[in-house]
Amino acid sequence: MAMEAATRSRSIRKNDTVLVLAGKSKGRTGRVLRVFPADGRAIVEGVNFVRKHTKANPQKNIKGGILEREAPVHLSNLMPICGECGRPARVGHKRLDDGKKVRTCRRCGGILDK
Q1: What is the pTM of this model?
Q2: Distances (CA, A) of 89 to 12, 35, 83, 99, 110
Q3: Whether 86 contacts 17, CB under 8 Å
Q4: Do 79 and 91 meet the contact criterion of CB atoms below 8 Å apart?
Q5: How far apart are CA 15 and CA 27, in angstroms?
Q6: Are the C-beta atoms of residues 93 and 108 closer than 8 Å to each other?
Q7: Does the pLDDT value for residue 95 go beyond 70?
Q8: Which of 29, 38, 39, 52 has its CA 20 to 30 A from that of 14?
Q9: What does the pLDDT average to over 32-55?
Q10: What is the pLDDT of residues 71-83, one digit of tens each?
């Protein structure tokens, strides 16, 4: 299971713009803030908000109340958006002439890595 998640995490990286394919945030796009390859999940900006009830802790300057924050989304529910064609992309891999391995868009052939 962990090996499969690590393999899938290669197609989505930090700072990628992704489309959410399933769940309560379906259809939204956002930037990946953090990827957890071992769990096969990622936190996406502005997507999958959950409410967290926090207890006040004056020693650490933490206010009590209900906080809204992003929760991790499974990588299978995310699809990177190609920077060249602007549409969701299935990810392919290609080795450039200088030997560097890059992620490519299967639809237009554009390079996803910056």
Answers
A1: 0.80
A2: 11, 18, 10, 23, 10
A3: no
A4: no
A5: 18
A6: no
A7: yes
A8: 52
A9: 93
A10: 999 999 999 999 8
- The Cα 41–Cα 8 span in angstroms is 10
Q: What is the pLDDT of residue 84?
A: 86
How far is the first Cα of the chain from the last one, in angstroms, to the nearest whole number? 30
In the numeric block, the tokens 């554009």 are attached to 110
Residue written as tokens 């999940």? Answer: 41
In single-letter form, the type of residue at position 75 comes to L
pLDDT at position 2: 58
Which residues, in sequence order, are bridge partners of residue 57?
62
Q: Which of 79, 74, 89, 67 is nearest to 24 (CA)?
A: 74
Long-range contacts of 26-30 (CB under 8 A, 24+ apart): 29/81
Q: Which tokens belong to 95?
A: 């080795």
**For residue range 14-24, what is the model confidence (pLDDT) as tens digits?**
998 999 999 88
| Beta pairing class for 78-80 and 91-95 | unpaired
